[in-house]
Write a sequence for this structure.
């Protein structure tokens, strides 16, 4: 490896975070959500760090096929269900569980003459994204139960505002009213609901970002929730510049030195997945010391203030986010969320899986 940037993925941190989920929802089984290549961490990391999960949940059928080929034998839930008839056949072949959220998916299942699949009927309780209206849930449940291809039916929904106080009661009431007479496991809680609402835990919880060490709350840090960063984005300084008072750095000359100072150039840019809109002041660590980004993020480089790190030089280690620099803080400065940064790490950034 020549260019020094890399994403270090900790399977131990993933296992730690899964354990925190079980502490908060001790009576529930866990669907570990690993869509988008396990939030950018990779399937290999997910299989190693989340091996004690009761099931894995994702949307990509190609990756579900890969999970089976890699030896995962426990349940796999396809969160958006089948996208076409062929997906139903693949679900039968691989033993996948399918979410059903619209009529076409029922129709495809009705065409299956042999074999069986577990399904999860999804109700729309207010997010208005996927799911059948609560008042239509009973009828679709009945029609699903009449299909020879359907072995078991679970019931689920998804919260739009689980991270906001007082926003869970309405959706839960709508869900409970619509499913009161229906049998089957229930699944409601995402990461935020796992943390704040025991009444939402039900039979299965579906943690996502908290498994990877990100906070589902804007005002609570991952550390305060007992979570560890599973991804550390690391690089090095590849050059050091000395600025005079009045010198600018980077495109647009958006940062101008007020006094003589040293600037480090980091091998990382927006083509690696670092947020282009991260402004001056975004936290970064050099040789373990917290400092800040200065100037605009370029395609392949960012520049950082070396005043707090007097001994830094070309070759000094840099952490863009991870154990020292919370990813949620970087995301907040850039006007986005940690989820996006995890998923946006570019293919040209090598991943190093460690067990620490």
């Amino acid at each position: 490896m020549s260019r020094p940037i890399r994403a270090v993925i900790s399977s131990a941190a993933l296992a730690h975070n899964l354990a925190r989920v079980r502490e908060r929802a001790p009576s529930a089984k866990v669907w570990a959500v690993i869509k988008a290549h396990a939030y950018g961490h990779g399937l290999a990391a997910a299989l190693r760090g989340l091996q004690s999960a009761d099931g894995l949940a994702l949307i990509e059928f190609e990756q579900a096929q890969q999970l089976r080929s890699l030896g995962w034998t426990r349940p796999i839930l396809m969160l958006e269900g089948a996208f076409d008839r062929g997906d139903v056949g693949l679900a039968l072949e691989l033993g996948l569980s399918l979410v059903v959220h619209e009529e076409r998916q029922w129709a495809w299942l009705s065409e299956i003459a042999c074999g069986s699949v577990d399904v999860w009927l999804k109700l729309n309780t207010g997010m208005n994204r996927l799911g059948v209206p609560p008042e239509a849930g009973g009828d679709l449940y009945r029609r699903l139960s009449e299909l020879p291809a359907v072995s078991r039916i679970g019931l689920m929904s998804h919260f739009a505002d689980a991270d906001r106080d007082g926003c869970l009661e309405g959706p839960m009431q709508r869900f409970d009213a619509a499913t009161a007479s229906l049998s089957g496991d229930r699944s409601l809680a995402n990461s935020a609901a796992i943390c704040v609402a025991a009444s939402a835990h039900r039979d299965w919880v579906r943690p996502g970002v908290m498994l990877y060490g990100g906070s589902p709350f804007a005002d609570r840090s991952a550390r305060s929730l007992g979570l560890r960063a599973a991804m550390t984005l690391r690089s090095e300084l590849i050059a050091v510049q000395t600025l005079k008072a009045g010198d600018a750095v980077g495109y647009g000359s958006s940062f101008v030195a007020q006094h003589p100072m040293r600037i480090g150039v980091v091998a990382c840019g927006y083509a690696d997945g670092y947020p282009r809109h991260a402004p001056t002041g975004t936290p970064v660590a050099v040789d373990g010391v917290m400092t800040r980004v200065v100037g605009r993020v370029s395609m392949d480089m960012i520049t950082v203030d070396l005043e707090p790190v007097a001994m830094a030089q070309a070759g000094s280690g840099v952490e863009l986010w991870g154990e020292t620099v919370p990813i949620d803080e970087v995301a907040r400065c850039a006007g986005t969320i940690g989820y996006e940064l995890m998923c946006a790490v570019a293919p040209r950034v090598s991943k190093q899986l460690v067990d620490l």
